[in-house]
Amino acid sequence: MFRPLLDSLLHSDPFLVLANFAEYPACQERVSETWRDKRQWTRMSIWNMACSGKISLDRAITEYCERIWMRVH
Predict the structure, then answer these.
(1) Which of 3, 11, 29, 61 has its CA 20 to 30 A from that of 55?
(2) Buried b / exposed e along 29-66 (16+ C-beta atoms within 10 A)
(3) Does the structure show a pLDDT above 80 at 71?
(4) Cβ contacts of residue 18 below 8 Å, gap of 6+?
């Protein structure tokens, strides 16, 4: 039943689902090591949020509030 899907992933993989699968376990181990170091994890989490900038969802919510909710109230 799943042979066509498996063949597609193993032989053509047009969406690159398995493109970096071999590297995934090593990367996950680094994540796990960092998670165990709470101080490092917290520092990295805060830095990540501070550098993320404004995302498109922020704009979408703002526009929704301005266009929909401000008209109703």
Answers:
(1) 29
(2) eeeeeeeeeeeeeeeeeeeeeeeeeeeeeeeeeeeeee
(3) no
(4) 9, 10
56's CB contacts (< 8 A; 6+ apart) are none
Token reading at 1: 């039943």
Q: What is the largest CA-CA distance in the chain?
A: 57
Condensed to tens digits (0 to 9), the pLDDT of residues 1-14 reads 999 999 999 999 98
Non-local (6+) Cβ contacts of 41 within 8 A are 34, 35
